[in-house]
From TrEMBL:
Domain Lipid/polyisoprenoid-binding YceI-like residues, every copy: 47-221
Gene3D superfamilies: Lipid/polyisoprenoid-binding, YceI-like
Lineage: Bacteria, Pseudomonadati, Bacteroidota, Flavobacteriia, Flavobacteriales
Family annotation (InterPro entries): Lipid/polyisoprenoid-bd_YceI, TTHA0802/YceI-like_sf
Identification of the protein by name: YceI family protein
SUPFAM superfamilies, per database record: YceI-like
Length: 226
């Protein structure tokens, strides 16, 4: 039949689209900043293990992607009855690292993202004026099989918005691990407008997607009571 090649092509397109949708990171729910969660008087305190904690990031543009990591500077978490209750994590934006490039290309992109290039300070994260980002837990909702929906205020560049995303939490007597699935935020909500076609017209294909993909890995150890 003459239509068989066309049918095969359409079937392939449908399968490819379905698989692509499965791999796409879910967009976080973003809203106005909310009050931070409070700890119970009998809570257990955990302190971040900096060397084993990080944020993975991915940026998108028509010609490809860039990937990297950002280090966490410090943080404290509190549990009540073994469940995560509150906490604050400080992100060291001056540690932005690009992992998909090498040499001068890597150094140039890192400098541009950090805002240390003359005349381009405000394009992205302007780490000279805003060296830290802060994530402050506002609420948690326990789901099945150790899964949790985590909400918190993410403050960057002097702007604060509440985001909600899914995490897996493993909590033993002395250690806690929090791992998020990949999720996305809209960078323009924090005033990061460089290359955004939702902000600027006539960019053609020289735009950068508004969505940034993030993935948190947080490991913490219990602080001994004095």
């Amino acid at each position: 039949m003459k239509n068989r090649p066309y049918i095969r092509l359409m079937l392939f397109a449908v399968i490819f689209t379905a698989l692509s949708c499965q791999d796409k990171a879910k967009k976080s729910n973003t809203s106005d900043a909310q009050a931070a969660a409070m700890s119970a008087s009998n809570h257990s305190q955990f302190e971040l293990i900096i060397e084993e904690s990080k944020v993975d990031w991915k940026g998108f543009k028509p010609t490809g992607t860039h990937t990297g990591t950002i280090a966490l500077e410090k943080g404290d978490l509190a549990t009540d009855g073994g469940k995560l209750q509150s906490g604050t994590i400080v992100i060291d934006m001056s540690s932005i690292n690009v992992t998909d490039l090498e040499g001068d290309d890597k150094a140039d992109l890192e400098a541009h993202l950090k805002g240390t290039v003359a005349g381009k300070k405000g394009d992205f994260f302007n780490t000279t004026e805003f060296p830290k980002a802060i994530f402050e837990i506002t609420s948690t909702e326990s789901l099945a099989a150790g899964k949790t929906t985590l909400s918190g205020n993410l403050e960057m560049l002097g702007q604060k918005h509440n985001i909600t995303f899914p995490v897996n939490i493993t909590n033993s007597e002395d250690m806690m691990t929090i791992e998020s699935k990949a999720f996305t935020i809209d960078r323009t909500q924090w005033g990061i407008n460089y290359g955004s076609k939702s902000v600027f017209d006539n960019l053609g294909d020289k735009f950068i997607n508004d969505e940034i993909e993030l993935k948190f890995t947080v490991k913490a150890k219990k602080v001994s009571a004095e």
